Amino acid sequence: MGTWKTRGLRGSTLEEYINYSNEKYREAGLALIQKIPTPITPIDIDKSTRHITLAYFDKKSTVDYIGAVQGLPVCFDAKECAAESFSLANLHEHQFKFMCEFEKQGGVAFLIIFFKSLDKIMYVPLSDLRVFMDRMYAGGKKSFKFEELNLEYEIPKKGDIIVHYLESLSLYLLDR
To answer: Tens digits of per-residue pLDDT, 140-153?
Structure first.
């Protein structure tokens, strides 16, 4: 599973590539995943362009994406980090709790993390995330390093799907 050498994710966001991948999955009948919008209240709107110029967040959002893969409920959040370690402060407590509750209902929850400095995207299952969160709650490190992740779950680029996370999800389901 390679990395993105020439164009990578430069000039765009991880979420844009995931949105594109989700559209390709939908078209192929593989999955139906929706981006969950962050609830906001507009404060100021430019009347000429009808663009929101100032707003505040209404309430805490859950995760970035939710849907179904071949009948399996899934939810996940997309994160980016500049370093070779991921700060758990980037995952909010309410998001982690939602993911845990989601799995209790029979779904699968995970993170997709883009490690910019390594130009690698990783699938991080909730089971692994729990280990890191438990370590933090016990007074340990408040982050985890890239090397601590299961490198088999690196998300490959396949054809025109830049963030082909279904492969990593499938591998995780076989492993558990």
So the answer is: 999 999 999 999 99
Global pTM?
Answer: 0.83
3-state secondary structure of 135: helix
* Helix, strand, coil percentages in the chain from 3-state DSSP, rounded to 5: 35, 30, 35
With tokens 């559209």, the residue in question is: 23
- Pseudo-torsion of CA 44, 47, 52, 56, nearest 10°? 20
Comparing CA positions, the residue from 27, 29, 88, 90 lying closest to residue 64 is 90
Contact 108, 169 (CB under 8 A): yes
pLDDT in tens, 125-173: 999 999 999 999 999 999 999 999 999 999 988 888 889 999 999 999 9
Contact 74, 33 (CB under 8 A): yes
Q: Is 141 helix (H, G, I), strand (E, B) or coil?
A: coil
Integer Rg of the chain from CA: 17
In this prediction, residue 8 has a pLDDT band, given cuts at 50, 70 and 90, of: very low
Q: Both tokens of residue 12? A: 């765009």
Residue 41: Cβ-neighbour burial (10 angstroms; 0-12, 13-18, 19+): exposed
